[in-house]
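Researcher: Please translate sequence to structure tokens.
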Amino acid sequence: MIRALILRLDAPWMSFGAPIVDHHGFIERFPGQAMLTGLIANALGWDHGDADRLQALQKRLVFAARWDVPPQEVVDYQTVDLGQPKLRETGWTTRGAPEHRKGGQQAKYGTHIRLRHYWEDGLMTLALAIEDGEEPNLNEIRAALRRPARPLFLGRKSCLPARPLLDPQDPMVEADSILEALKKIPVWSRNGTCGNTTRLEACWPSTPEVCNGAMETVYDLRDWHAQLMTGEHRRMRGVLPMGKCE
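Model: Translation complete:
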């Protein structure tokens, strides 16, 4: 038997980071371990200097997620001219001096184009559990998500939630597994009422549980000491059969 927090991830845009290729900031279909670690740590008021605690928290997280309202993928075209006087000469950092990119003249002062991918107008339900260990426990995480120490975002900082993250009716449930915890929770429609309950796209840990899914490898583990994405793990992804609304 496990206890799990139930989160409703709802935002105009969400981004679940994938490996960046050239100037494309790609996304995964579902959140990763590092993203959820950062989300919880932000709510708790931790910072990047808490690398040991962040590394330990990342190892302890267990989750399953489903798209109640499937999103559309959009690409945001971004560009900046680093040669502008306000960026090239004027002091604008906390140290009172410009901080330029490393490399040649183009890297420092050229025009840079970025294509950032997002999930638009989707609604996700996520069941989150934590394995035994030191701080934080599930009750502390629940309290932090209810009253976060800092503003929270779902991926990139531009992805602000449209509603509180904790489910308003069932913020914590008990079940035999994290997947069963997710299946217990009613499906939401776009306006937060009971919606389509047939077959939903989902991910869950790579366990022997029988479902219509396939194993996938995701690159979602972070070395919090080096501040680099360095690890991978395997999880299941597929279709989650759901029951009817009561």
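Researcher: Any highlights?
Model: The longest helix spans residues 33-44.
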